[in-house]
Amino acid sequence: MSVVIETTLGDITVDLYIKERPRSCLNFLKLCKIKYYNLSLFHYVQRGFIAQTGDPTGSGRGGDSVFRVLYGEQARYYQSEKVPRIKHKKIGTVSMVNCGDGNLGSQFFITLSPDLDYLDDEHVAFGEVVEGFDVLVKLNEAICDDDHRPYKDIRITHTVVLEDPLDDPLGLDIPPSSPEPTKEILDSGRIGADEEIDDSHGKTLEEMDEIIQEKEAKARATILEMVGDLPEADIAPPENVLFICKLNQVTTDEDLEIIFSRFGRIVNCEVIRDGKSGESLQYAFIEFENRKSCEDAYFKMDNVLIDDRRIHVDFSQSVSRYQWKGKGRGVQVFHDKKEPEGRESFKPTAPWIRQPPQKN
């Protein structure tokens, strides 16, 4: 009285409670024999609870008992067997899904956790898993959406009846082989059960290295967000601001503005100076009115000689013009020299300069 349920994750062997649940076992065994469950999705998988399948439509709203196959639409469901009472006490209990008012069809579930006794009054346990607990572990670890539907298809591929002590009802047509899968059945809108997920497929080593670096940068940004150094992990620096370094100490804001203004209108230009001595720290930020002017200056001014020093030009990576307003309140962008509330106004006032903490 056993059935092997072959799935895309492995095989599960189920022993049936023929004596206690004769009608449910008859329904299940005969549906297996006519290949009714072939290619059925596990359409509902909730970790630590159940994995549900048995609906050929994959929607969770379909499925018929074997009696509809034999006797027509009026026999789509059959009444559940409540005596004797069998508890859902252990992992691997196999139970028919109650479709309402004790009506059972083809859908069934397998428990993924022990002590689910509150299911006893609603659903009818008719068997238990005796082999394939590793498959249940894989089912329990499936990644699912908010509706508990796996992102990657998990299907019953075949069912094998090892022993069937129940006679086949008259009119039961048992196919000689499994039906061929159709495109409509396999098209679930999810990742196919046999579809490989390989980010590196078709990519060069350089492309893979770039992907890895991008993931590492994302991870670092997330950590900075968590410790409060970034308002948001996905925040990006402005695209119209240049960072200039290796300046001569005698180079002033006005000098840089005159030199770089040939590329476009400059909104702000500031050589960063020591707060106490006022001496140049030999780097500066230049904000252009638009991104195109910024790019032109970047390509033409790197390594140019200014005041006997070869400067280095790069795009600014500073995001200090963005201030986190607090959890759930979003980000405020400062476009002018007005300071955020609660901070004293002081030099330097360029919007991308990180402001020191307010003195008490």
Describe this structure in words.
- About 8% of the residues have low confidence.
- With 360 residues, the chain is α+β, with helices and mostly antiparallel strands.
- It is elongated.
- The chain contains 7 helices and 17 strands.
- Strands 1, 2, 3, 4, 5, 6, 7, 8 and 9 form a 9-stranded antiparallel sheet that branches.
- The relative contact order is 0.11.
- The protein is 20% helix and 24% strand.
- The longest helix is centred in the middle third of the chain and has 23 residues.
Describe the secondary-structure layout.
Blueprint: E1 2-7, E2 10-16, H1 22-33, E3 44-45, E4 50-53, H2 66-71, E5 78-79, E6 93-98, E7 103-111, E8 124-131, H3 133-140, E9 156-161, H4 183-186, H5 205-227, E10 241-245, H6 253-260, E11 266-273, E12 280-288, H7 291-301, E13 305-306, E14 309-310, E15 312-315, E16 322-324, E17 331-333
Antiparallel strand pairs: 1-2, 1-9, 2-8, 3-4, 4-7, 5-7, 6-7, 6-8, 10-12, 10-15, 11-12, 13-14, 16-17
User: In total, how many beta strands?
Assistant: 17
Broad structural category: alpha+beta
Separation of the first and last Cα atoms: 81 Å
Quote the beta fraction.
15-25%
